[in-house]
C-alpha cells in the first residue's frame, strides 16, 4: 500500500507546508504561513530573549537586592496594545490573502471544456465559483476506506457517469471544483500540494477547488479518523494534458458502459433461469421462489 | 508557626469523641481535604503513568515506517485511552488534587465548604477511571478522545468500550462538577479575615475561574454523551444523518465543552507559576490585577472559540472569520500573562531551585504552544495544518510544556508541605533536564512531520521523504521525556524516607499554607492570622523579625536578613 504513494518524491518542507508545482491556493496558503512565521519568530525570540536575559542577569548573587516593583500600568497597557496590534496585522494579512485561497480562478482557454457549476447536481450553495462560473465539477465521496470520484456528463442520470476509485485523473489548466461527501462516517479530503482539507461529513456537502498547470501526480490521504484502516485511505491526484484526459474519459466511459451492459445481460439471464422453474433446492417453496426471481429482476 | 516542643496537656476533656481511624480505613473514610488531596494526587499520577506508557507504545509503533508492532485496532485503542486518560483522569483531576490540598490552606480555612461532597468527588473520579480501564478486558474504545459521530455510533463502534467511555465522562464529569461547586463555595465564604478579592492568592483566583468554567462547560458534554448513549442503544438519531440527525451537532457540542476544557487544564497551571515565580525571584508578582483580570478574560473568551476546531467542516466564510478573530483575542490576555511573568523575574534575585526551573521551563515551552495556536487560528492555514502532526505538536506543547511542567513545578514546590520532607534538588534538576530536552526533541520535529503531510491518528506511514527520520527522532525524544518523569517518581519515593526535614516554610513563601506545620495538622491552623496584603507570610515574617529583635540594639541588619524579604 505504501509503495503507491511514493510518487511525488521530495516533500521535504521543514518549516512550511508542502507547496511547489501544485495548485495556486496551496501556494497562497504557503505564503500566508510564511508571513505569520516571520511575525511569530520576532515574538518568539523577543520573549525568549527577555526570559533568558532575566535568568542570567538577575540570578541571586551575594548582596543583590530584589527590586520591590508591583507593576507599571503604562507598560502593561503598552504591551496589551502591542499584542493586539500584532494580531490586527495578522488579521489584515489574512483578509488580503483570503480571496486567492478561497475563490477559484477561471480555467485557461486551452483547458478542458467546463460546465456552469450552478447547473451541476449537488453543488453546494456556499461553494465559491470562478468569475465565469464554470469549472469541471467532480464529486468526491469518502467511504471506509477508499475515495470514489464521479465525473460529470451531459445527462441528468448519475448512474451512468464515469467514476473511479482512489486515483483522481484530472486535466491540467482547468479549474477543478470538488463537491465532497461522505457515505458512512466522517472523512477529510486532503492533497497537501493542492490546497487545504475539506471534511467529508455524512449529510453535508463540502467543497474545495484546485487548478494544476503542469502534469504531475499528487499524493494525499484521509485526514479524519474513520476507523481501523484510516491510515491506508490514500488518494492520488494525477494531472494529465486535457487531450489525454479526454481520451481517458472516453475510454473509461466505454469500459463502464460495456461492463454495465454485461452485468445487465447476466442479471437478465439469471432471472430467466430462476423464472424457468429450475428450483435450486428440491423442497423450495414455490411462492418464495417467485419472489426471489422478482427481486432479481428488479435489480 | 514554629511549634512548641512540649506537648500541651488539654485543659478540656472531650467525651464521646470517635477514635481517629488508622491505616487504610482512615483513607477510605476520610473527609479531610488534605487526605482527599493526597488521594487525588496519587491516583491521578498513576493514571499519568498509564497514559505515558500508552504514548510510548504508540511512539514505538511510529518509530519506523510500515511498522507492524501494533495492530490498527490496538493502535486506535491506545490513542483513545491516552487522550482520554491524560485529559479526564490526569490533568483536570490532578489540578483538583492540588486545589483540594492547598485551596483551604492558602485562604486560611480549616477544610473545604462541603467535606463529604469532597470525598464523593474523589470516589466518583476513581470509579470513572476503573470503569474506563476495565474495558481493556473487553473491547476498548477506538474512536479517539473526541469520539466523533458517526464513528462513535453503534454501527461503527459496536464494542462496550465506547459505552465505558460515555460512563467515564459521566462519572468524572459529576466528580468535577461537585468539586467545582465545592471550590466556589469555599473561596466565596471561607477566606481568612482581611482576605478580600484583591488579596486572594493568584492560584486561588485561577481555581475559582477553573471551577466556574467547569460548571459552565461540563453540563454540555454530559448532555452530548447522553444523546450519544440514546443514539447507540435506544433508537434515537441525534447524530445520525440517516434519521434526520447531524454528525456536526456532536462536533459543536463536544467542542463547546472541549475548548473551555483546554483552559480548565491550563489556568490553574498559570496560577501555580504565578505563585512560584515571585517566591524564588524574591520580588512581588508583576501586575497582580492584570494577571487576575487576564484569567477572567481568558475564561470568558474560552466559551466563544469552539468552532476553530471545525474550520475544515462545511462552513460559511463569516463563521470562519468570527472564530478566527475570537481565537486571536484570547492570545492577548495570554500574552499579557507571559509578559507579566518575565517582568516578575526582571530585577529580582532569581534562585535556581527546581520549582523555579520548572516554572521558567513552562514559560519558555508554553510560549511555543501559544504561538503555534495563532497559526492554527488563521483558518486558511488551519486547512493545511488541521488534523496533522502539527496540531499534535501544538497541543502537546500546551499540555505537556504547559500543564505538565506547571504540575511538576507544583510538585516540587509543595511536596515539602505535604510530606514534611524536601525533594532532592540534583535529582529534580536532572528530571527537569530530561523532560525539557525530551519535550523539545519529541514535539518540535512533529511540526515538520505535520507540514510534510502526515495526518494524526494513523497507525502506519509510508517511507516517503523524511518521515522515517523525523518520526524516529520523535520516538527517541519521547523516551527521554519518560525517563525524566521516572526520575521525579524515584525522587518522590526516595524523599519520603530520606528527605531532609522541611520545616513549616522552606522556601520563604508568600502565602498562608507556609504558616502552618509541614505536614499540616488536621485542623490546618490553630490560629488564623489576619491578612493585610497579597503576601501575608511576608508580613508575618517581618513582624516576627521585629518582635524577636532585642529592643535595645538599633538593629543594623542590612545584608544578613536580605534574603528573608
TrEMBL record, chain A:
Its cofactor is Cu cation. It catalyses: 4 Fe(II)-[cytochrome c] + O2 + 8 H(+)(in) = 4 Fe(III)-[cytochrome c] + 2 H2O + 4 H(+)(out). One of its GO terms (biological process) is ATP synthesis coupled electron transport. Signal peptide: none annotated. It comes from the Bacteria. Residues 6-105 form the Cytochrome oxidase subunit II transmembrane region profile domain. It is a multi-pass membrane protein. GO terms for cellular component: plasma membrane. The keyword Transmembrane helix applies. Binds a copper A center. The chain crosses the membrane at residues 36-56, 77-98. Residues 256-299 are annotated as: Disordered. One of its GO terms (molecular function) is copper ion binding. InterPro entries: CcO_II, CcO_II-like_C, Copper_CuA, Cupredoxin, Cyt_c_oxidase_su2, Cyt_c_oxidase_su2_TM_dom, Cyt_c_oxidase_su2_TM_sf. Its EC number is 7.1.1.9. It is found in: Cell membrane; Membrane. Keywords: Copper, Electron transport, Membrane, Metal-binding, Oxidoreductase, Respiratory chain, Translocase, Transmembrane, Transmembrane helix, Transport. Residues 133-251 form the Cytochrome oxidase subunit II copper A binding domain. PANTHER family: CYTOCHROME C OXIDASE SUBUNIT 2 (PTHR22888:SF9), CYTOCHROME C OXIDASE, SUBUNIT II (PTHR22888). Subunits I and II form the functional core of the enzyme complex. Electrons originating in cytochrome c are transferred via heme a and Cu(A) to the binuclear center formed by heme a3 and Cu(B). Belongs to the cytochrome c oxidase subunit 2 family. This is Cytochrome c oxidase subunit 2. It comes from uncultured Solirubrobacteraceae bacterium. The lineage of its organism: Bacteria, Bacillati, Actinomycetota, Thermoleophilia, Solirubrobacterales.
